[in-house]
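User: quick one, sequence for these tokens?
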């Protein structure tokens, strides 16, 4: 029998893989693994280190996303996406504090969608900008 861990960031991992964004992909996988460990700790009702380690992993994923999409886009055109990611992260952290595994899983759905949307939208913006100049650009080319 093949056992698979729960996937908390399938959209984000897929977006990073499709865009060949290796640093973002590595961080998304590490964050997904941390989320799985945290969820297990929540379901078991224990105060394991996994519950404390997820917050820093989420912040590192946001930093990796900012680097991938470019800080100029992340704080200008992508500000709405950045706020959605931050709001979803707050919901995850509240669920951890409350020890609520169900709320945690639901909050991660929103977080994954917000994060993947940011990555895809930044890539789409880079493609649109490139189409106007006749040059091929990558998401990171939007960096300040």
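Assistant:
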């Amino acid at each position: 029998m093949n056992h698979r861990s729960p996937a908390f960031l399938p959209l984000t991992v897929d977006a990073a893989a499709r865009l060949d964004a290796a640093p973002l992909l590595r961080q998304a996988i590490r964050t997904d693994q941390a989320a799985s460990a945290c969820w297990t700790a929540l379901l078991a009702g224990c105060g394991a280190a996994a519950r404390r380690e997820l917050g820093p992993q989420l912040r590192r994923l946001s930093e990796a996303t900012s680097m991938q999409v470019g800080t100029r886009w992340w704080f200008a055109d992508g500000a709405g996406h950045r706020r959605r990611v931050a709001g979803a992260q707050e919901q995850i952290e509240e669920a951890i504090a409350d020890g609520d595994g169900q709320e945690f899983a639901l909050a991660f759905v929103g977080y994954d969608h917000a994060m993947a949307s940011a990555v895809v939208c930044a890539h789409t913006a880079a493609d649109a900008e490139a189409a106007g100049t006749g040059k091929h650009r990558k998401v990171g080319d939007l960096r300040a």
